[in-house]
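Let's inspect a concrete specimen:
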Amino acid sequence: DRDKPGMPSVDENREALRLLLDEKWHRLPSMIPTSSVSQDGREDVLKFISSIILFRRKRNADAKEAKRRAKVKARKAAKPLKQKHRERKPKPGGDGEAGD
């Protein structure tokens, strides 16, 4: 209950938290002010959660694709190289000159 005498305001609490975190951390985390009473900040929190989910999906898809590419590359490296054209062997009994 914020109406009790001597209780700090929301802004005072927020600033005290920032000061406390600033002593320990080099960079402060993102903060989204919310209220369970007025539902303020609800959409911001949902958007933030959605962005994290999308980021993780993209990262997982990229990792899966990289793993697939590495597997294909390893499979190609393991196969012996096939020659596309064979050298022709001379026909028996001929030395390759016409009309002796």
